[in-house]
Amino acid sequence: MTASPTVRRRRIARELRQLRERAGMTLDVAARQLDMSKSNLSRIENAQIGIKPRDVRAALALYQVTGADAEALIEIARGAQQRGWWQHYSDVLPEWFEFYVGLEAEAATLRTYEAEAVPGLLQTEAYAREVYRLTAGEEDLDRKVAARLRRQEVLHSEAPVELSVVLNEAALLRPVSNRAVMAGQATHLEDIAQLPNVTIQVLPFEAGGHPAMNSPYVLLTFADTADAAVVYLENLSMGMALEEVAQVRSYSLVHERLRRLALDPAASLIRLKEASRYFT
């Protein structure tokens, strides 16, 4: 059973859409039978809004799903109504980013490329504070940093996420703060890189051009194969989740190519140590 209400909502959305299609019903027909608007049913099927367990039961009856299969889906719908820890930070986390954090909390693997900054899961408190100051100002700074540090628990949980990071050398060496903050961040990366579930590879300047030059990304997969992989992209004002099989495969291939272009983990660790000495 999935733990994240975001992942559960996404599962219910996919199941209801597939069941409606198998039943040969259009959105119009199903919405009328369920006494809801077509737009609401569409938003439910796209995981934009949640659905109450009683409405899931009504939909399953309409699609002629009964017994243990129906009860399992209704139980998932109940779980989707729970609150994730990130919802306690809704005052400082945009709704579109809450969605990502909900996926991240349940992911089995994360593969990411970052060009300008150390990924949030690997940031020290001091580095995160400076990044927020530069990108968002002083407002609610403590709350934002606290939420970022809370996210990092996925690296140290009982079943920690498998994390593969390709980090542009520019992100490693760009001095976003004073030398002490940067040295502390580089040392932290050294420590994290030695966790058994974390692989950090530095993409050196000498690697030249590469296929992700205009597109940092996070690729998430989940332990339950019923939860499809997601590519998450982000800019200053919104995030986007790509779920098509071809899109996921494209980014998977890009990540593997970046890993081949990057320094291997042992050589990357040496580069991290060099960065730490550089800022000391």
From TrEMBL:
- Which residues, by range, are in coiled-coil regions? none
Q: Name one GO molecular function term.
A: DNA binding
Query: Mind telling me which residue stretches traverse the membrane in this protein?
Result: none
| Highest taxon in the source lineage | Bacteria
Domain HTH cro/C1-type: start-end pairs: 16-70
Q: Which Pfam families match?
A: DUF5753, HTH_31
Task: State the name under which the record lists this protein.
Answer: Helix-turn-helix domain-containing protein
Q: Identify the species of origin.
A: Micromonospora phaseoli
